[in-house]
Design brief:
binds ligand LLP; eight-stranded parallel β-barrel; pyridoxal phosphate; Lyase, Ornithine Decarboxylase, Chain A, domain 1; EC 4.1.1.20; about 25% strand; alpha/beta; about 425 residues; De-COase2_pyr-phos_BS; nine-stranded mixed beta sheet; globular; amino-acid biosynthesis; about 30% helix; TIM Barrel; lyase
Length: about 425
């Protein structure tokens, strides 16, 4: 099925006109495609079919319950980074036994919650965290399954804010120190060492850094075997990039083929944590042009979505495609697409050639990952609704926030 496509001069999400969704639910609004989510998840699952594996979707990319539920129904696992994300997975029908817990700052409460739920594994990022998990598990009379996230010191070649596998990053344990740390972990009575974990960054557009990292991690697994520590699973993280503009990232199949050539003859179960590659191109943000404003220097299209709705352009200078929902035949001019927030950095796109007028709808593409999940209420703006299309059907999967809800937890002083 065509996912987002033009038909009769207007943009459709599966079988539904995006303009009809905007008319029914207002703008700005996030629109997701169930078919796209399923297609992207299955691409990973099929690509790794030759060996035991589990696709653990990275919940941070898009944590809407309906998105998680669509993936849970396919048998997906999940990669979480907080108690909140675990609660979402469970509420959406996901299985704790298929859930891994990443992140550098797990609190004792979060660890206890994850142990009670019986998650699949903790991806541990420091010795202090190993000690804390061991302690909490001991108090609960439990044994915690752990893998250690190692930092292979590989340059992912991506934006510095989303590169995580270099020595200077806060993530993981230096791979050269890992054998000693594994010995420490193996000696802790309430830990069960089951895996090795590695995630080197996000929006990678070449397989080379993945292959380099895998080679180093497999070397570590061999060293551990010699030390008598046997590893059951290898979590290779997420990070596969998507097409935003002119990137040509490897397909999940090409990525899997490159990894599998190194994995032959090993009996490891492979865990993967893709987020963006599943959700990114399964969603868009639809917004309306409120005003056209020209200065001597530039021409602005002021739209009703802003950096609080979609932070990526402001935070990473990310280029995201912006397309008219109902294209006009008139002359295209260059616009900066900006929001109403009081910051010069509040833009969604710069120097875009578009034929538009006040009142037109624009679709910001590839917004299914790190879109809504990074949104905020800055400038007291209620967050946008989320809508899931499935064939002909349209479901509001998160209602637009109300203004009252924004300060419902606030309190003024009594005297
Ligand atoms: N696993 C771990 C441990 C991670 O830290 C991440 C992403 C993933 C998996 C999923 O990576 P993905 O497959 O989505 O690349 N907000 C940024 C991206 C931050 C990624 C953080 N970690 C953006 O909008 O580009």
């Amino acid at each position: 099925m065509a996912i987002f496509h033009y038909h009769d001069g207007e943009l459709f999400a599966e079988n539904v006109a995006v303009a009809a969704i905007a008319a029914a639910h207002g703008t700005p609004a996030y629109v997701y495609s169930r078919a796209a989510l399923e297609q992207h998840w299955r691409a990973f699952d099929t690509a790794f079919a030759a060996q035991p594996h589990l696709v653990c979707y990275a919940v941070k990319a898009n944590s809407n319950l309906a998105v998680l539920n669509v993936l849970a129904r396919l048998g997906s696992g999940f990669d979480i980074v907080s108690a909140g994300e675990l609660a979402r997975v469970l509420a959406a029908g996901g299985e704790a036994e298929r859930t891994v817990f990443s992140g550098v700052g797990k609190t004792a409460e979060e660890i206890a919650y994850a142990l009670t739920a019986n998650i699949r594994c903790f991806n541990v990022e420091s010795i202090a965290e190993l000690e804390r998990i061991n302690h909490v598990a001991g108090e609960m009379n439990k044994v915690a399954p752990v893998s250690i996230r190692v930092n292979p010191d590989v340059d992912a070649g991506t934006h510095p804010y989303i590169s995580t596998g270099l020595k200077e990053n806060k993530f993981g344990i230096d791979i050269n120190l890992a054998p000693a740390v594994y010995q420490q972990a193996a000696a802790m009575p309430n830990l069960d060492v089951v895996g090795v974990d590695c995630h080197i960054g996000s929006q990678l557009t070449s397989v080379t850094p993945f292959v380099d990292a895998l080679q180093r991690v497999l070397g570590l697994i061999d060293t551990l075997e010699q030390q008598g520590i046997s590893i059951h699973h290898l979590d290779i993280g997420g990070g596969l990039g998507i097409h935003y503009k002119d990137e040509t990232p490897p397909t999940p199949a090409a990525y899997a083929a490159a990894m599998q050539s190194l994995l032959q003859g090993r009996s490891l179960e492979i865990l993967l944590e893709p987020g963006r590659a599943i959700a990114g191109n399964a969603g868009l943000l639809v917004t309306q042009v409120e005003y056209i404003k020209a200065t001597d220097e530039r021409r602005f299209a002021i739209v009703d979505a802003a950096m609080n709705d979609l932070l990526r352009p402001s935070l990473y200078q990310s280029w995201m495609a912006i397309d008219p929902v109902q294209p006009r035949q008139s002359e295209a001019l260059n616009y900066d697409i900006v929001g109403p927030v009081c910051e010069t950095g509040d833009f969604l796109g710069k120097d875009r050639s578009l034929a538009i007028a006040q009142g037109d709808l624009l679709a910001i593409r590839s917004a299914g990952a790190y879109g809504f999940t990074m949104s905020s209420n800055y400038n007291s703006r209620p967050r946008a609704p989320e809508i899931m299309v499935d064939g002909d059907s349209v479901t509001l999967v998160r209602a637009r926030e109300t203004i009252e809800s924004l300060f419902a937890n606030e309190q003024i002083l009594q005297d």
